Records
---
Amino acid sequence: GENVEQHPSTLSVQEGDSAVIKCTYSDSASNYFPWYKQELGKGPQLIIDIRSNVGEKKDQRIAVTLNKTAKHFSLHITETQPEDSAVYFCAAGRGYSSASKIIFGSGTRLSIRP
Amino acid sequence: GAGVSQSPRYKVAKRGQDVALRCDPISGHVSLFWYQQALGQGPEFLTYFQNEAQLDKSGLPSDRFFAERPEGSVSTLKIQRTQQEDSAVYLCASSLRGTGSTDTQYFGPGTRLTVL
């Protein structure tokens, strides 16, 4: 079945350094790849997404890359700040089909050390 | 504007009880999703509505789980004869358009269900 694997499960970086989270997916028909940030007691919040017709997208300190051939995509956060501490989820979806559900990875708990 | 709201935020049930969880999506959003999130895991898809039509219920774990959206807005997820393994956070999400789109899914805060 459809599966999204995410690594690492926990990540601790010094404030100001960069953080990278990697995901792989199994469904070759996936064409939509959102990233969500979840803070304690809250629902996931979209931070950036990428569609299969582009290889990279950037929004201020956040960037996502996609390699469709290898079926993997990554989240890069530069100049990390304390407020970046949260759990991050990658996901993959298949738009233009009968169900626009997305499959989530298992999450990465990111901690920013002051 | 208002986001997705869910109620109750916390629910404690004794094993065997029935529970009903409510989701109010963003006004005008066509699509509505229910997810189950176990502790320390990512959300897992349960079911999907486009307006009042339930187009996908492949993620519902058993026939004890039932969801409805009778007027195409508010949705209710009902769990009958709750069991301890049903303990999780139940998330609702909505998006603007229907099938054929990959619009952003906006999530509510979730309902934390604890079955004793």
---
Amino acid sequence: GAGVSQTPSNKVTEKGKYVELRCDPISGHTALYWYRQSLGQGPEFLIYFQGTGAADDSGLPNDRFFAVRPEGSVSTLKIQRTERGDSAVYLCASSFKWNTGELFFGEGSRLTVL
Amino acid sequence: AQTVTQSQPEMSVQEAETVTLSCTYDTSESDYYLFWYKQPPSRQMILVIRQEAYKQQNATENRFSVNFQKAAKSFSLKISDSQLGDAAMYFCAYRSDSNYQLIWGAGTKLIIKP
């Protein structure tokens, strides 16, 4: 597609449920990033993929969070046993290379855990 | 650790006037990049302007310009001839030359009065 696509746009779930958030980056972009933006704050880094591998997952808050990018394109962020504190906008971005060019962001997935 | 501070939670300006948004940062590194991103209600982060720390000349993009003071670790954004479409959250962000993570400020909400 022309831009970074994220689905779903909004997700409401109950505490304890499992959630998957999908990111489809710009074609040809090898670098993919997930950020989390809580209400009234700037984004916080979660994980960075270079190709298929997670080059840096140091921002994932705990082991309930996991992300994959099996074919080096689409990525899925997975959250197990969701908690109310997981409520946030999850932003995905891609770039051609991590150290050159601009990051292109999707419109985010707003997760609400009741 | 690097930090980015935006001390203005909200700013307002009359349409066609000029407004300046403030940003300060803290780093011990000498090579880095600074960014201003715009986030409209659609949630998509859009790059407004970018500054390389090694460049003394301030970056400009049409009506947007920055005042980069490296010694003072200050990076303000000036918007000239403000337009209704400029209304959004504005985020200042920092990236080290040797890292891919963006460090973000908390944002400034810009209101344009018609």
